[in-house]
């Protein structure tokens, strides 16, 4: 009898000799999701992947293979001679000009990247959109959308995109949308770990196919400005300590992500940085229809109201809490640093 | 004559192809093709000017803050405002965190893994270098990534997150640093200094910054051969990388890191180096599109009047990258250019001796790391918690302005035109637009195209690994190049 019964994560993953082989492509984006991922803090990134049996077969930013070596790998993946498990795609799919995909022809090939993605998606057991560009079109689809940018399985909030609404990978999942601009390192790592452990089913994804482990909550949850939010004590301009929702465009009460529960870069978040959440995990965030850092209102009430309470309650509570704002909170809200702090209780 | 098509290049930021015409076993001509177009200059037209601060960082996930810095400078110039001291220092620090991270990320993850390749197996240094720098599995990546993540805590602290912050505003920073945060920042800087001194250099930063000539560098390399920089210098000497990849053009810097006082002077000054120092006149910058997939103009356009109208089937073109020129001439930009213009004796000696090739570019980058971190320590110490970090400004309905900054990989410029309160035109020239530009209408090749000419092919007739070294020595960022 074996003295030690070893945990066997490698045996749990399938495909390519018990390992989860990963191919990563980049197209109409900035590469920022990869750069963010490399800032992974909770554990050593490459060791974590190795522990989980995840092998990076090709990633444009970290692999040794280049040029003809890279093409040999990608050709073999595309024709099925090199089986792989996960296709991660970062960046928008550029359909233009005129449906030709020629705004991004992959270097070293005559083939538009959208064709490479179609070919490789048909061979992958899972397809993962890394970032809001690959998920929904994202920033590249803003304005006049000069490149006809869209996501893998969405065009903004509309199902479709490059692969079409009916696309389903052999794992039974649609494209997994790790949305965010950029993505938090752990959103990517934990998605890959969940897939490697066969622990990500359809129920683990929300209505937009985002992993629920990070997209169930709102950015507003855990925001350090919550006392100001509760009392509707609002910052009037950038750099002030108050709530950013009423005047400065913050959509933390409407954006799905755990940015204030799972810190960025050691402890930050957009609202910690002193600026609005621009709801970068949501489709269409790139065209809000108003200035990003100013809140559109009707009759003094912000148009976008919190998703975690009934609107009428919010309006009634806002009026009530505004009338009950402590002087300390009101003063700090429009100051660039906290002036009065709560003091220790006086002895009776 | 035959043609080699080399691509996609890994470990450059974005997608890149190089077309080599070869004859007599050498590269006779090179053409550099930037293969991705996204259209930011078109997207920005008609937007509210302040919204540029959301769009432009997303041009690039590695020069994100540089893009924010250029836009905030252009907007500040349009408003006619200047950040208070705290705002200036915070902006310098945020920008320096990114630039320093980019330098070491380039060294550890992008550039050095090529020396771990099997083609160097017969070299006496290969075993050490391969164990250390093998892509993904080498010990350097395992050491460096946690150190880099620790360093980026300075971003969480000062800018909320990285990449893509909105903290940098025309009037300063939206995150006033309190006294406790300033102490944490100093701790982060100190921690990364320890990593650099123990692992990257095996020497104190000030000693590295004081290396004043090629001879002193060689002597330093003999004493510090076990450090990561020492491993590079050993391979570089064996492969004669100082003689590889010269562009043979002038060097340009817009100047980096604002100093106090009027006039907008910069810690590393703006200028040109063409065998000797010269003044930089940004009015002499123009972009030629004769070999790029854009509608032709009658003459190269100064960026304030620039246009970006893609034409994917233009016959004479081979890239999405425009060809910026300074007074009609090709220039090289980057850390080497900055240190030449700033007058560092080592940078000048390397260029005087060898012209400035692969080795000089890499040395200049690490020299900057050794110079920049001590400066950051003084900037952090100079922050005054409790005092203002920003001022407010008003945007005029009509304005023309520019924001010129230095990203890690070189000179980045934004040219902004506001009419009736909206963006009328927004033109961007990124560092790699300069370095990886195509030919212009006079047929002058860009800096990388020159640097690749003459490289001997391998025995198998394939593009040699030297091509990879030369390309990466520029630390290219292709997503910035074409935006």
SSE topology sketch:
The complex is a heterodimer of chains A (348) and B (483).
Chain A: H1 9-12, E1 20-26, H2 32-37, H3 45-51, E2 54-58, H4 68-78, E3 86-90, E4 93-94, H5 113-121, E5 126-130, H6 132-136, E6 149-150, E7 154-155, E8 158-159, E9 176-178, H7 185-196, H8 212-215, H9 226-230, E10 297-298, E11 301-302, H10 311-323, H11 327-333
Chain B: E1 2-6, E2 16-23, E3 26-34, H1 40-44, H2 52-55, H3 64-79, H4 85-111, H5 126-133, H6 139-151, H7 153-159, E4 168-169, E5 172-173, H8 179-200, H9 205-209, H10 214-223, H11 228-239, E6 250-253, E7 256-258, E8 266-268, E9 271-273, E10 277-278, E11 285-288, E12 323-326, E13 331-333, H12 335-341, H13 345-354, H14 358-382, E14 399-407, E15 410-419, E16 422-429, H15 431-435, H16 447-452, H17 465-473, H18 478-481
Helix pairs in contact in B: 3-4, 4-6, 4-7, 4-14, 5-11, 6-8, 7-8, 8-14, 10-11
**Main beta sheet of chain B:** 4 strands, mixed
How do the strands of the widest beta sheet of chain B line up side by side? 10-9-6-13
Strand content of chain B: 15-25%
- The tally of beta strands of chain B, per DSSP, is 16
Name the chain pair with the biggest interface and residue counts per chain. Answer: A-B, 80 and 90 residues
Q: Which spans of chain A of ≥5 residues are poorly predicted at pLDDT below 50? A: 1-18
Number of helices of chain A: 11
SSE class of chain A:
alpha/beta
Shape of chain A: elongated
């Amino acid at each position: 009898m074996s003295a030690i019964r070893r945990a066997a994560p490698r045996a749990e993953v399938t495909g390519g000799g018990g390992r989860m082989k990963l191919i990563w492509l980049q197209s109409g984006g900035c590469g920022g999701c990869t750069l963010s991922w490399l800032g992974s803090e909770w554990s050593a990134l490459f060791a974590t992947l190795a522990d989980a049996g995840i092998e990076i077969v090709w990633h444009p930013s970290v692999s040794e293979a280049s040029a003809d070596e890279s093409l040999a790998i990608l050709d073999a993946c595309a024709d099925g001679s090199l089986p792989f498990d996960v296709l991660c795609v970062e960046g928008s799919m550029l359909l233009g000009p005129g449906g030709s995909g020629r705004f991004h022809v992959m270097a070293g090939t005559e083939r538009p990247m959208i064709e490479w993605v179609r070919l490789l998606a048909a061979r992958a057991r899972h397809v993962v959109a890394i970032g809001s560009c690959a998920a929904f079109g994202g920033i590249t689809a803003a304005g006049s959308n000069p490149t006809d940018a869209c996501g893998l399985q969405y065009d903004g909030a509309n199902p479709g995109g490059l692969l079409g609404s009916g696309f389903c990978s052999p794992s039974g999942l649609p494209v997994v949308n790790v949305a965010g601009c950029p993505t938090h390192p752990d959103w990517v790592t934990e998605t890959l770990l969940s897939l490697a452990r066969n622990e990500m089913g359809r129920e683990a994804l929300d209505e937009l196919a985002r992993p629920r482990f990070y997209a169930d909550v709102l950015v507003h949850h855990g925001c350090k400005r919550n006392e100001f939010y509760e009392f509707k004590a609002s910052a009037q301009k950038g750099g002030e300590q108050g709530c950013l929702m009423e005047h400065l465009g913050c959509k933390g009460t409407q954006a799905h992500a755990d940015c204030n529960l799972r810190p960025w870069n050691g402890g930050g978040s957009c609202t910690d940085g002193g600026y609005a959440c621009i709801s970068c995990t949501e489709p269409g965030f790139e065209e809000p229809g108003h200035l990003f850092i100013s809140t559109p209102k009707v009759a003094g009430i912000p148009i976008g109201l919190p998703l975690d309470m009934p609107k009428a309650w919010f309006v009634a509570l806002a009026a009530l809490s505004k009338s009950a704002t402590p002087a300390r909170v009101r003063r700090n809200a429009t100051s660039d640093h906290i002036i009065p702090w709560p003091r220790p209780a006086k002895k009776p | 004559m035959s043609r080699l098509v080399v691509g996609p290049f890994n470990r450059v930021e974005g997608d890149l192809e190089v077309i080599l015409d070869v004859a007599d076993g050498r590269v006779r001509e090179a053409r550099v093709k930037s293969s991705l177009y996204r259209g930011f200059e078109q997207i920005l037209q008609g937007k509210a000017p302040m919204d540029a601060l959301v769009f432009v960082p997303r041009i690039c996930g590695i020069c994100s803050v540089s893009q924010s810095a250029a836009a905030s400078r252009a907007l500040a110039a349009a408003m006619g405002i200047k950040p208070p001291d705290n705002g200036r220092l915070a902006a310098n620090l945020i920008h320096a965190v990114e630039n320093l991270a980019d330098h070491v990320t380039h060294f550890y993850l992008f550039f050095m893994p090529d020396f771990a390749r099997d083609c160097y197996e017969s070299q006496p240094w290969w075993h050490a270098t391969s164990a250390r720098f093998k892509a993904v599995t080498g010990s350097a990546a395992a050491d460096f990534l946690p150190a880099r993540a620790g360093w980026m805590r300075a971003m969480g602290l000062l800018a909320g997150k990285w990449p893509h912050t909105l903290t940098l505003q025309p009037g300063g920073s939206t995150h006033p640093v309190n006294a406790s945060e300033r102490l944490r920042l100093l701790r982060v800087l100190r921690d990364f200094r320890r990593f650099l001194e123990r692992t990257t250099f095996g020497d104190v930063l000030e000693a590295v910054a004081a290396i004043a000539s090629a001879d002193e560098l060689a002597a330093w390399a003999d004493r510090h051969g076990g450090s990561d920089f020492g491993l590079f210098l050993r391979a570089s000497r064996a492969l004669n990388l100082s003689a590889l990849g010269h562009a043979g053009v002038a060097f340009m810097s817009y100047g980096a890191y604002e100093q106090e006082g009027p006039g907008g002077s910069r810690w590393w000054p703006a200028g040109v180096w063409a065998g000797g120092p010269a003044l930089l006149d940004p009015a002499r910058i123009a972009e030629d599109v004769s070999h790029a997939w854009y509608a032709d103009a009658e003459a190269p356009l100064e960026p304030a009047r620039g246009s970006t109208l893609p034409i994917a089937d233009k016959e004479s073109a081979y890239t999405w990258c425009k060809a910026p020129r300074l007074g009609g001439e090709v220039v090289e930009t980057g850390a080497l250019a900055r240190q030449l213009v700033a007058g560092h004796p080592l940078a000048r000696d390397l260029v005087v001796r060898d012209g400035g090739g692969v080795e000089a570019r890499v040395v200049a980058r690490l020299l900057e790391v050794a110079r920049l971190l001590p400066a950051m320590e003084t900037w952090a110490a100079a922050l005054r918690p409790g005092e203002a970090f920003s001022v407010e400004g008003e945007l005029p309905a009509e304005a023309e302005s520019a924001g010129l900054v230095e990203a890690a990989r070189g000179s980045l410029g934004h040219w902004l035109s506001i009419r009736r309160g909206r963006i009328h035109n927004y033109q961007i020239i990124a560092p790699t637009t300069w370095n990886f530009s195509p030919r212009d209408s006079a047929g002058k090749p860009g800096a990388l195209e020159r640097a690749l000419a003459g490289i001997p092919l391998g025995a198998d007739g394939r593009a040699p690994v030297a091509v990879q070294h030369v390309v990466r020595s520029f630390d290219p960022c292709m997503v910035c190049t074409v935006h």
